[in-house]
Amino acid sequence: NAGVTQTPKFQVLKTGQSMTLQCAQDMNHEYMSWYRQDPGMGLRLIHYSVGAGITDQGEVPNGYNVSRSTTEDFPLRLLSAAPSQTSVYFCASSQQQRPGELFFGEGSRLTVL
Amino acid sequence: AQKITQTQPGMFVQEKEAVTLDCTYDTSDPSYGLFWYKQPSSGEMIFLIYQGSYDQQNATEGRYSLNFQKARKSANLVISASQLGDSAMYFCAMRGGYNTDKLIFGTGTRLQVFP
Q: Rounded distance, CA A10 to CA A17, Å?
């Protein structure tokens, strides 16, 4: 009964370091996406994917990279961390037949010093 | 451009009373979807209810109903018989078109239910 699993839950980085947030879902959902949540701003879409091998940019893609080599996994890479990327990151998935009815992971809190 | 507006930063309601959380939207797409999500203090995001732009009837899911007024571009969430466990942040979101799960979220409303 895992659903959407994100790791790590907490991470502290120094400016300029790189890291990967992992996301895996076991529901065979076609759609996956990454959002960031900042205080007072709701959630903003970073990148999304409609299937293996297909990704596209969302509202705030700069500084992030994604790939989708399998249906299950959708990692988010921070290429060179900046303090502005301090945020809570959510991975989500949904069925193609019910787009937008998102199942979210528990979130990953990232602090960039 | 699409936009979601939630003008109530916080709301209070007494247990067992009904409460309405406001949401207005703006889009030029004729086909769109409107969603409400709940975020308890533990942090997870939980899908509550969905309304399609072509749906004739207002969506309902248990104690949640969506008051959809297309001409006014509003999609208010109504929670009936509030419970202490309803205390949380509530986010309204919109999807443009159909074959996409790209959502635009509002800034949220914090609901506090008191005994």
A: 15
A:69-88 residues touching chain B, CB 8 A cutoff: 88
Residues of A in contact with B98 (CB under 8 A): 99
Q: In terms of residues, how long is chain B?
A: 115
Cβ atoms < 10 Å from Cβ of A33: 29
Please check the confidence at residue A1 and state whether its pLDDT lies above 70: no
Our CA-based measurement puts residue B25 at a distance from the nearest CA of chain A, in whole angstroms, of 15
Whether residue B91 and residue A42 make contact (CB cut-off 8 A), yes or no, is yes
Q: Are B55 and B33 in contact (CB under 8 A)?
A: no
* HEC letters along chain A: CCCEEEECCEEEECCCCCEEEEEEECCCCCEEEEEEECCCCCEEEEEEEEECCEEEECCCCCCEEECCCCCCECCEEECCCCHHHCEEEEEEEECCCCCCCCEECCCEEEEEC
pLDDT digits (tens, 9 = 90+) for B20-38: 999 999 999 889 999 999 9
pLDDT above 80: residue B41: yes
Local structure of B33: helix, strand or coil: strand
Of A41, A48, A106, the CB nearest to B101: A48
